[in-house]
Amino acid sequence: MRRGPGGSGTEPRCPPGSPRRPSTASGPGEGERGGGERGGGCPLTGPAERFPVGAVEAILRDVLRGHLQELPYEPGTCREMAKTIAEVIKARVKALLVPRYKIVVVTHIGQLNEQSMQIGSRCLWDPATDTFSSYVFKNTSLFALANVYAVYFE
């Protein structure tokens, strides 16, 4: 056991290599200890609730269809529409009020011709807590891809 400020030896010990959660200590002499690490318990084990991937996919489908259903491809308009759609999606996902998740929204809109395109993304994350939702929309003249990345912030 690690000795606390009172030397009681009752403070829990975290597994080696695990980060520490900041303490709520506020009394004199209870501030930062050696090495810049703050006391407190072991970190939380993960989110209290999982990120609602299905609900986010429904938001993506609704927003893309609502904004792009009858829109013809026009480069300037689609450039602005991609920004607008990303902002709308982010606002609606944040309205779900899922705590402690950082939300990143990426949208692509392009002309639909007889070409193929591959869009890839790479992220550094924890597969136990982090996730994403994706939706592809097509009409007669354009395609759109919207990705929402949800990264848990402990």
UniProtKB/TrEMBL annotation:
Region (Disordered): 1-47
One GO cellular component, as annotated: cytoplasmic dynein complex
Pfam family membership, one: Tctex-1
Domain of life (superkingdom): Eukaryota
InterPro entries: Tctex-1-like, Tctex-1-like_sf
GO MF annotations in UniProt: dynein intermediate chain binding
GO biological process: microtubule-based movement
Annotated family: Belongs to the dynein light chain Tctex-type family.
Listed name of the protein: Tctex1 domain-containing protein 1
Organism: Aythya fuligula (Tufted duck)
